[in-house]
Write a structure and sequence with these properties.
The chain is built from 18 helices and 47 strands. The chain is an alpha+beta fold. The protein folds into five domains: 190 residues, Galactose-binding domain-like (Jelly Rolls, Sandwich); 98 residues, Immunoglobulin-like (Sandwich); 352 residues, TIM Barrel, CATH 3.20.20.80; 111 residues, Immunoglobulins (Immunoglobulin-like), CATH 2.60.40; 79 residues, Immunoglobulins (Immunoglobulin-like, Sandwich). The strands form 13 sheets. Strands 3-2-5-11-8-9 form a six-stranded antiparallel beta sheet. It has a six-stranded parallel beta sheet with strand order 30-29-28-27-26-33, covered by helices on one side. A four-stranded antiparallel beta sheet has the order 1-15-6-10, with no helix packed on it. Helix 5 runs parallel beside helix 6, helix 7 packs parallel to helix 9 and helix 14 runs parallel beside helix 15. It is globular, with a radius of gyration of 29 Å. The structure holds beta-D-mannopyranose. The site of beta-D-mannopyranose has 13 residues, from loops. It comes from Adineta steineri. Its EC number is 3.2.1.25.
Length: 889
């Protein structure tokens, strides 16, 4: 039912605008900097991609081109296009130009008439064009400012310094990015280059109407809240018209249900109304792993003429932050979807390319499906990137990947003058309106790490300026961003936090800047432990929710060869590799971690040596990710809250980061070209819905330590009962026969964590005749409901094990369907970290990888993203290795 609407002003017959649209997209734009380059090219496009297509510059991602071609964005650019209009088009009396996205600061003229100025890539721009300016033959001219110089000028014009003024040297970046509403990481980041693109990046068109036409636009639909008593969903609908006041009879239809509703709506500027949809008409939308993702189209029409529609889903979202009761400090921080507490398994998402016009929907889909098949239920759209295109959110709705959506502010203080705040207000209103129909977006967050930056004074603000800095923080994120979000997103179905990390409600009680926004007893935490041994979880905080954590690794040799043909560039410490390492100290840290845990390459062949380092860095990252995930999952249960420290009940991990923006050493688990790193396979395993965990306490205890114990747990997220047997074997690497084996029946009637047993370590090792922990390890297998999942626990760092040649061989490689292949592998003795790889031309993923073999033969699947006909094994270039290979000279 509608909320009550009173008077109907007057009825007029609405002809839904007979408009005329002329697209300005095309290959016939001319761009020039009036100095070095003039080229013809395609819009949507940017300076770099147009010059590349025209053969004037090489691939910007290759070699040192990120710095060589920096001059391209230090200057002004002019984009022009000639276009014709018909006399019919010119007969309309009102014409606009619409730019869905322009990057960023520009001045637009048509036939010399001023049309408008743009300052933000985060809002679309619509400008009126004077009728007298248009002719049969026209020229549009867009004069772009250099984003780099614009940011500099704005920073100079601003009355105080806003830190950080520049990026760290290692990033080869640009300065003052907070002064321009443009993808923050386009000025460089600690995993990405600085290209600061200039151009028209989405649709651009002219549209003509007659001023007397009445148009009704659907602005947004939001499934705002659920009334459990009435059993109805409240959907908030926003409409607008250019020509009110008037009234209209609108019909709302929820397609594929019997529900529809008709009502007379009086229009006076924007119209907001709420409709109630009975729960019995719809099925719920569930996150990946918890049920189906049912989506419905809600269509609105006016006397049979469609106005618009949105695809919506029905789910409730609660961010539960409640006290635990006497003796336990802090509050919980977890998502409850449709009243079901959900442990979050996810990652952080960054832009997939510096040039969005070369990111295909297919690429986005493959990345998101790589998350979905790795059992992820949430991604965080990180605040240093972009608001993604519409199709991205359609995919996350469909795949059940919930989104934690930051607004685009990251790792900086920001200006707060009126024009800037007005731009931010407009941006937030626009983005929330555009995106709020999507069931997958379950939380908004004001910024990335800026509460922590203020609270912990990351940028060395003088004490005298601290109060002003705090006030400015609140002015931007509370009075501007939050107020705008709440103006648009009115229900209870999408919580808002001002920052990530924050202490949630506790941050609010501390006036939005908590003393320690990284407290492990409240809200979410970002933690990077690269200074310690990252395999050792005792170095991690036990937080309520870990929204960032991870470690770097190197991408594959295939990926390096995409950006350099110079083999001398390919070594761990080459100037080229170090040039691509944007976080100083991380290459050394990677090396230190590898040395702590793994054998070092012995080969003198430098390329082979680098290939092995890459493999080791990926093992290091994979083992780190597994450690972090296991640690969070073990502590997820409320029963694991430590009475002394109040820590525990970790209800999610979103590791840093799933995707890459270019080819470089980074924290990603998927390479730029979509190849999964070993860590992605480990995450897929560690995020399994039913999962055995084995831990040794103290970490890597001595075999004779009488106090040491092995704890065994089963985590179950399935709502059906599980019945199974957990068999754990103490093994050595010289034989397939286990030394001793321990079995336990497990039965779980509901989701949760079952602590299966504690095994006395010294006794176990004695019985296994394993007096040196580096001679043995434990391998467990959990068989339940016809499924099997394994788990390996090292008793010592892998570098301490004596490795002998397992004679790893590919026994057979068969195609079983257009997209799927089976590979049979044999070994003569146990093998650690078995790694399979295929040619760079084949994109897809193995059913597992980086695994250990404790049996003579095993079969691994390979799934190709595209169907492959004329299968030829040679084209695959199937490669394999295990840890033993690193020990070879
Ligand atoms: C966090 C993120 C990013 C950064 C990452 C790795 O702080 O929010 O800013 O890229 O760590 O350093």
């Amino acid at each position: 039912m509608f909320r009550q609407y009173i008077v109907l002003l007057f009825f007029i017959c609405i002809s839904l605008s007979n408009s005329n649209r002329i697209s300005l997209v095309g290959n016939d734009w001319t761009i020039t900097d009036n100095i070095n380059h003039t080229a013809q090219g395609r819009v949507p496009g940017t300076v770099h991609t147009i010059l590349l297509a025209d053969g004037q510059i090489p691939e910007p991602y290759a070699d040192y081109n990120d710095v060589t071609f920096r001059y391209l964005v230090h200057t002004k650019w002019v984009f022009t296009k000639k276009f014709n209009l018909t006399s019919d088009f010119l007969a309309y009396n009102h014409t606009i130009i619409h730019l869905e996205q322009i990057d960023t600061v520009s001045n637009i003229t048509i036939n010399g008439c001023p049309v408008g100025r743009t300052h933000s890539m985060f809002i679309p721009h619509t400008f009126n064009i004077e009728n007298s300016c248009l002719k049969l033959e026209n020229t549009i001219q867009i004069d772009f400012d250099s984003p780099v110089l614009y940011a500099l000028q704005e920073s100079i014009a601003y009355n105080v310094t806003v830190p950080p003024t520049c990026t760290p040297d290692a990033q080869n970046g640009e300065c003052h990015v907070q002064f321009i509403r443009k993808e923050p990481c386009s000025f460089s980041w600690d995993w990405g280059p600085s290209f600061a693109p200039i151009g028209i990046t989405r649709d651009i068109y002219l549209e003509a109407t007659n001023a007397s036409d009445i148009t009704i636009q659907l602005e947004s639909i939001n499934v705002a809240s659920y009334d459990a008593t009435q059993k109805t969903w409240r959907a908030d609908v926003m409409l607008s018209s250019n020509n009110d006041p008037f009234s209209s009879t609108l019909k709302f239809v929820l397609e594929n249900t019997t529900w529809s509703y008709e009502a007379v709506v009086p229009f006076t500027k924007n119209v907001s109304l709420s409709i109630n949809i009975p729960d019995n008409q719809v099925a719920r939308w569930w996150p990946n792993g918890y049920g189906d993702q049912r989506l419905y189209t809600l269509s609105i029409s006016n006397k049979g003429t469609p106005i618009g529609s949105r695809v919506i889903g029905f789910r409730t979202v609660e961010l539960v932050q409640e006290n635990y009761g006497a003796g336990i400090n802090g509050t919980s921080f977890y998502f409850s979807i449709n009243s079901k507490p959900i442990y979050i398994k996810g990652s952080n998402w960054i832009p997939s390319d510096s040039f969005q016009e070369r990111v295909s929907d297919e690429k986005l889909e493959r990345l998101l499906r790589s998350g979905q098949v790795a059992h992820m239920n949430m991604l965080r759209i990180w605040g240093g990137g972009i608001y993604e295109r519409d199709s991205f959110y359609e995919m996350t709705d469909r795949l059940g990947i919930m989104l934690w959506h930051d607004f685009m502010f990251a790792c900086a203080l920001y200006p707060v003058d009126e024009p800037f705040l007005n731009r931010v207000h407009e941006e937030v209103i626009h983005q929330v309106k555009r995106l709020q129909s999507h069931a997958s977006i379950v939380i908004w967050a004001g910024n990335n790490e800026n509460e922590a930056a203020v609270a912990q004074n990351w940028y060395g603000v003088a004490p005298a300026d601290m109060n002003r800095t705090k006030d400015e923080y609140r002015k931007l994120y509370v009075d501007t961003v939050m107020v705008a979000v709440k103006e648009m997103d009115k229900g209870t179905n999408r919580p808002f936090v001002t920052s990530s990390p924050s202490n949630g409600l506790e941050s609010i009680t501390e006036n939005y800047i908590a003393t320690d926004p990284q407290s492990s007893l409240y809200g979410d935490v970002h933690f990077y432990g690269w200074k310690d041994d990252s395999w050792d979880t005792t170095t991690y905080p036990i937080s309520r929710f870990l929204s960032e954590s991870g470690i770097q690794s190197m991408p594959s040799l295939d990926t390096w060869f995409e950006v350099t043909k110079n083999v001398s560039d390919l070594s761990f410490n080459s100037s080229f590799v170090l040039h691509r390492e944007h976080s100083s100290g991380q290459t050394i840290a990677m090396k230190v971690h590898i040395e702590q845990n793994l054998p070092l390459p012995k080969t003198n062949d430098s390329l082979n040596n680098f290939g092995q380092f890459i493999y080791l860095s990926q093992i290091n990252q994979a083992m780190t990710m597994k450690s972090i995930s296991d640690f969070c999952r073990v502590h997820s249960s409320k029963d694991m809250i430590n009475n002394k420290t109040s820590e525990g009940n970790t209800m999610g991990l979103m590791y840093w980061q799933i995707n890459d923006i270019w080819q470089a050493p980074t924290w990603s688990t998927i390479e730029y070209g979509l190849k999964w790193k070993m860590s992605h396979y480990y995450i897929q395993h560690a995020y399994a819905p039913v999962y055995p965990i084995a831990t040794l306490t103290p970490y890597l205890a001595n075999a004779t330590d009488e106090n040491a114990q092995i704890s065994l747990y089963i985590i179950n997220e399935l709502s059906n009962k599980i019945r199974g047997t957990l068999i754990c074997e103490v093994r050595s690497l010289d034989t397939f026969t286990p030394r001793i084996s321990y079995g336990s029946d497990v039965s779980m009637d509901s989701p949760g964590t079952q602590h299966v047993d504690n095994l006395p370590y010294a006794l176990l090792m004695k019985r296994a005749n394993c007096m040196d922990s580096s001679k043995c390890l434990m391998h467990c297998g959990f068989n339940y409901n016809q499924e099997h999942i394994g788990q390996t626990l090292f008793f010592s760092q892998p570098k301490n094990y004596e490795l002998s040649n397992p004679n790893l061989k590919i026994e057979s490689f068969k195609q079983i369907s257009p997209t799927d292949f089976n590979i049979t592998i044999t070994v003569e003795r146990p093998a650690l970290f078995v790694w399979l790889d295929v040619s760079a031309n084949i994109t897809g993923y193995f059913s597992r990888n980086g695994f250990h073999m404790f049996e003579p033969t095993t079969t691994v699947g390979f799934h190709s993203w595209t169907p492959l006909t004329d299968f030829n094994q040679a084209n695959f270039d199937l490669r394999h290795m295990s840890l033993f290979d690193v020990t070879l000279p």
